[in-house]
Design goal:
43% of the residues lie in helices and 12% in strands. The chain is built from 14 helices and eleven strands. The strands form two sheets. It has a seven-stranded mixed beta sheet, with helices on both faces. It has a four-stranded antiparallel beta sheet with strand order 8-9-11-10, covered by helices on one side. Strand 8 and strand 9 form a beta hairpin. The relative contact order is 0.14.
Length: 474
């Protein structure tokens, strides 16, 4: 497409983008038009033609996708640890795709390289790292793996060159840690069984005394501890492990401490809530997702470490890529600190959004979410039929509908299923121990008190309807 045809096409595309954005404020728009995978596959043309359908098909396919996708910009979208649409971030995403930079060398991405370095340096200041470096990654899962790789490298500096016999090495994680630590253990070669889960307290936080017991047990059994992964903001309960206590244990035992702050890292902007991560400056590495509470488009995730040389060694490639990396740019090329070669410019959207609102804007956002979470918790506790299932630490609210003489797990599972089929309020179904809970997450800029009231009303309505029908069903 060229000239007038291109201009007309872009105008029509912008109309669709504007319509999608405006749909977040339309009362009669559902968050999802629910349909089973089988039905959706049968009713949607997903074929890849031999000859192609022409340029008009682009807009037709965009229309179809927007019609069927989950409207994550809707205020009722409270299912995962992210939601909403950050316009500044969206602009950065569009420009990143338009310019199609790859982040391995300054030569190919000059201004983007400097932007990413500026973001890394600023986030290190916020965490409290006086030295070190970092990289943008494909997500918190990749950040956790980098943390474990750095821990391995610190233990055995020759491991990147000679390999790593992981049969006798163990890492320690919270019993409520993100499942990505299992994938990391697999990649490192230590295996799932050498990833030791440490007991948590009633609030879902790793118990330091249990960590000491597990380390003692492992060393007594002839195993070599090499990494502790603490969590700042667990996936289900939003719990924050006691970092100061864990750091002291890690340092006493010469074990690398990595902190998974993919979800909770944004608390560091707020003077009121920063204490949740008290001691983060004592950790050896940390990952932090800006695409979660900060609301940037997926993916925007950062890994930081005090040990720049260790990260460099983990990602070292010698002179194997002489066609990319040259001696005169060794201090600036970001590809020397990344597991990836080709890597999209995810820093631009964060940089644009950050320059728009500053640290103060992020702090205000965090504090607003926490205040709304207080309000949702109050609605639950004031309800005669709802009960909190865990003490709240962050903006995860875990609760359930309660009734006499019914299986509460089946009841709450069905409530959540009905919410999905209704297609308005999207929350997640989770487990705390053996209990099925409804988990709502406040991390969407369009959420307000009216949305939260409507969510509770819908849950109470479905719960009452199900309880009335139970005698006829069972």
């Amino acid at each position: 497409m060229r000239g007038t045809e291109l201009a007309q096409f872009l105008d029509e595309l912008v109309e669709r983008i504007e319509s999608y954005i405006n749909s977040s404020a339309t009362n009669d728009t559902k968050t999802i038009h629910y349909m089973s995978a089988t039905s959706r596959q049968r009713s949607t043309d997903l074929s890849l033609p031999l000859e192609g359908n022409g340029s008009q098909s682009i807009l037709d396919d965009v229309d179809e996708f927007l019609r069927q996708c989950v409207k994550t910009n809707r205020p009722e979208f409270m299912n995962p640890l992210w939601g909403g649409l950050n316009i500044a971030g969206f602009v950065g995403e569009v420009i990143a795709a338009l310019t199609n930079q790859s982040m391995y060398t300054y030569e190919l991405s000059p201004i983007a390289t400097l932007i990413e370095k500026a973001i890394i340096e600023r986030m290190m200041e916020i965490v409290g790292y006086g030295e070190g470096f970092g990289t943008l990654t494909t997500g918190g899962s990749n950040g956790n793996m980098l943390g474990m790789l750095c821990a391995r490298q610190q233990l055995d500096p020759m491991s990147s060159l000679q390999g790593f016999d992981g049969l006798n090495h163990v890492a320690f994680v919270s019993a409520e840690a993100h499942y990505s630590v299992l994938m990391s253990a697999n990649v490192l070669g230590i295996g799932y069984q050498n990833l030791i889960k440490v007991a948590c307290d009633s609030r879902g936080r790793m118990k330091p005394e249990s960590l000491v017991d597990e380390i003692t047990r492992a060393t007594t059994n002839g195993q070599t501890p090499f990494c502790i992964i603490a969590t700042s903001g667990t996936t289900v309960r939003g719990s924050f492990d006691p970092l100061k206590d864990i750091a002291e244990i890690a340092h006493d035992n010469n074990i690398w401490l990595h902190v998974d702050a993919a979800w909770g890292g944004s608390c560091l902007f707020s003077k009121r809530h920063r204490g949740l991560m008290d001691g983060i400056e004592l950790a050896d590495s940390v990952c932090w997702d800006a695409h979660k509470m900060m609301g940037l488009p997926l993916i925007c995730s950062v890994f930081l470490t005090k040990n720049k040389a260790t990260l460099r060694a983990v990602c070292a490639h010698g002179d194997a890529a002489h066609y990319l990396f040259h001696e005169d740019s060794k201090d600036i090329d970001l590809g020397r600190y990344s597991l990836q070669c080709g890597r999209r410019n995810d820093s631009l959207k964060l940089w644009i959004a950050w320059r728009e609102i500053g640290d103060a804007g992020w702090a205000k956002l965090v504090e607003r979410y926490c205040k709304l979470s207080d309000y949702l918790e109050s609605l639950v506790t004031e309800s005669e039929s709802l009960a909190m299932m865990s003490e709240r630490n962050w903006t995860n609210i875990c609760f359930r509908y309660e009734a006499d003489d019914v299986d509460l797990n089946e009841l709450n599972t069905e409530i959540r299923n009905r919410l999905m089929r209704e297609g308005i309020h999207l929350v997640s179904r989770s487990n705390i121990g053996d209990d099925v809970v409804i988990r709502a997450v406040v991390a969407n800029p369009l959420i307000d008190e009216s949305v939260l009231k409507a969510l509770i009303s819908a849950i109470e309505r479905h719960g009452k309807e199900i309880v009335k029908q139970i005698p006829a069903q069972y």
